[in-house]
Input
Amino acid sequence: MTSSRPSARSSVARPSVPRFDIVLVGGGLSAGLIALALAKHRPDVSVAIVESGAAFGGNHTWSSFASDLTAAGAELAAPLIAHRWPEYQIRFPNYERHIAAGYQSALSERLHDALVAALPAGNRYLGAPVVDVTPTGVTLADQTVLQAGAVLDARGQKTTGALELGFQKFVGLEVELEAPHGLQGPIIMDASIDQHDGYRFIYTLPFTPTTCLIEDTYYADGPALDRAAIAARVQAYAAQQGWRIRRIIRDEDGVLPIAIDGDIRAHLAAFAPGIAPVGMAAGLFHPVTGYSFPDAVRLALHIAALPDLGGAAIDRAARDFAISTWESRGFYRLLNKMLFRAAYPHERRRILQHFYRLDAGLVGRFYAGHSTLLDKMRILTGKPPIPIPRAIRGIMQAPAHKVAL
Output
């Protein structure tokens, strides 16, 4: 794949006071998909996207299950998807399992290239830090002012004190191996390994017969990430699998939120009225898995379908979307209360091991955030992986702390 990612900000000449119907602040996944959805479905609307970095999308791999997306969502996401597999694997100390379900990964390079293809050069601002945002305009560090009919804030999670979060943190190495790895599909969770810092598992995506992304992941109480130590564990894991690394192609790391409790309305109220918070800033991620790709696709299509794309209308619609999504996922936060409040860190693997023995259809609906009442009953019945009294105390207790990334 030939990438058009720039090394510096474009020097395209722009008018002294540019005006756009919509300005997206932050050039990551959510903003990028909104821009692509508008370009596809509302080509009459002028959209600008502003990113402080040198390329849109940053350095990320976003994965999802094929069943997470509607047909319209899959069509919108298609240019971003670089790899697809028909099945995935789970490993725990007591069993291994192959699940026949489509899995796919999108790459930030693809998001960048899609935006370059979809938006005029004068609508793309790279290497452009933002110093002020209002409902009608965005001021860049070089004092360029972008006038806007609507402004959307997609600059990531914001500390408000209204949400109680745990953390899913990882370090990943994309590597080229000296010989084929032999994998037919991803290992989305190898928890047969030694446990550290809460619940630990290795996540492996095989891109080609001799290249793969290996991520060492932790469900932990705190956000601290020792990148060097965890990268060394990735290399040790590869050696344990019999894989000899020829070279490291790139590295990737992150600290993702896991939703435990909180007041989404109070969280959103911390954002200035008239500026629509979207993406991770709006709490749009699966509470348990941290996956944000399906929510970003759904929100992009939702905004593109609005009859009114004025600033007030988009702001209201984006907040309502975030609230309804959050409120529909109380069951998943209940599970997180048991995982983070009730289970001791060394017990977390036992909970996940219990869950992944369940029916493959149930697991798929869980990832998509569409668990049925029967699914929920099935998850909560059977021999509990932690004592029931402790689980109840974890559910009922007041939050010990509230943090945000």
